[in-house]
Amino acid sequence: MANSKGSVLSSGGNAAGAGISAVAAAACVVLLFALSACFSPYQENYGTFNINFGSSGGRSVTAWWDGTLNPDALVYSVLLDGQGETIQRENINFGEKVNFSVTPGTWDIDIKAYQPYAQEEDSVLKAVGKRTVKINPGKNGTVVVEVGPPPEETPTIIAPVFSIDIKQITDASDEITFSETCPITISRLENSELPSTATIELVGAVSFTYIFWYIDGDEAAAEEDGSIILNAWNYSDGEHHLTLEVFYEGAWYSKRITFTVE
């Protein structure tokens, strides 16, 4: 009987020891998970931050310059450029907080705000903001970007082309006029709405044996196709006289054209 009891006690001791070992192993696993979380490769390889488009004190899109502008009526876009990557988020509404997870390093942030319309192509740019930030591994919090009015667009001015055909050259008049509403006027002013150059072309120039141009009595160089380009920087302000002489079907024709420099 004693041996039997001894045997039972020995078995119970082994079971208790096994239970302690299991608990210890579990504790080790939990500790390993905790340590791995502290030294996560994900945290080392990425940096997180947010941009807040909300209306509270946490808003990070700041400095509205126009008191009449209603920011909650706008739609926003964000473009991130850095570390060989480009990240874009569009159609962001006022009140949203947008989170980003990127490769640590230097990033350029470009924010645009549009007044939306039914047709996307009709949307009007109302605000822009740019900032360059350094994103560190791990959490970087909220990034503040100041915005202001978009830069004024420089209007594209297309240099006009005036055409002269054979009928205008061979008619009885001494002068060629194009239109009272569209005279030849060019400008040297940088902010002028007028072009700085104008081209006068000859339609059917291959029909002319000779083509000569004169400006205020001095011969002027023509292009290979017989046309001439007037550049405001080559002339003083005021009215100038351009003379065209051509030889056509055995006869010479001379026409005068007036242009103005402002």
Q: SSE layout and pairings?
A:
Blueprint: H1 2-38, H2 41-45, E1 47-52, E2 61-62, E3 75-82, E4 85-93, E5 97-102, E6 105-115, E7 124-135, E8 138-142, E9 145-146, E10 161-164, H3 166-170, E11 184-186, E12 197-202, E13 210-215, E14 218-220, E15 228-231, E16 238-248, E17 251-261
Parallel strand pairs: 1-8, 2-9, 10-12, 11-17
Antiparallel strand pairs: 1-5, 3-4, 3-6, 6-7, 12-15, 13-14, 13-16, 16-17
Report on the structure:
This protein is an alpha/beta fold and 262 residues long. The protein has three domains: 2-39; 44-146, Sandwich (Immunoglobulin-like); 161-261, Sandwich (Immunoglobulin-like). Helix content is 18%, strand content 42%. The chain has helices at residues 2-38, 41-45, 166-170, and strands at residues 47-52, 61-62, 75-82, 85-93, 97-102, 105-115, 124-135, 138-142, 145-146, 161-164, 184-186, 197-202, 210-215, 218-220, 228-231, 238-248, 251-261. Strands 11-17-16-13-14 form a five-stranded mixed sheet, with no helix packed on it. Strand 3 (75-82) and strand 4 form a beta hairpin. It is elongated. The N and C termini lie far apart (127 Å).
Helix content: 10-25%
Write the CATH homologous superfamily of the largest domain.
Carboxypeptidase-like, regulatory domain
Number of self-contained structural domains = 3
Q: What structural class do helix, strand and pairing data support?
A: alpha/beta
- The value of Rg in angstroms is 39 Å
The CA-CA distance between the termini, in Å, is 127 Å
How much strand content do the residues show? 35-45%
